[in-house]
Amino acid sequence: MEIDAKKIKIVQDILSLRDDSVLTEIEAVLRGSRKEAYEKLLYPMTVDELESRVEESVADFKAGRVKSSKELLKKYGK
User: What gap in Å lies between CA 40 and CA 23, rounded to an integer?
Assistant: First the structure.
């Protein structure tokens, strides 16, 4: 079964549910999946990675590739 067909079938099944506890379980599974996916993006840097980022940042600063806090606040506001 193609993924779109699976999604439609799941949505149809969910819409026909009358048991709130099942919906609560589905919510928990979805929340857990999102949390796991997000946490996979978070990983500690090695010392070498950190030093590399610092060197890149210093080079950007020296080359003038920077924005002032005033510019950032104007663009992204607050």
Answer: 26
Can you tell me the mean pLDDT for 50-66?
A: 95
pTM of the predicted structure, to 2 decimals? 0.42
Rounded CA gap, 38 and 36, in Å? 5
DSSP string, 4-51: HHHHHHHHHHHHT---HHHHHHHHHHHHHHHHHHHHHH--PPPHHHHH
- Residue 59 to residue 40: CA distance in whole angstroms: 29
φ, ψ for residue 16, nearest 5 deg = -90, -5
Q: Distance (Å, rounded) from C-alpha 43 to C-alpha 48?
A: 14
Q: Could you give the count of Cα atoms lying within 13 Å of 13 in the half-sphere of its Cβ?
A: 9
Q: Residue 49: what pLDDT? A: 92
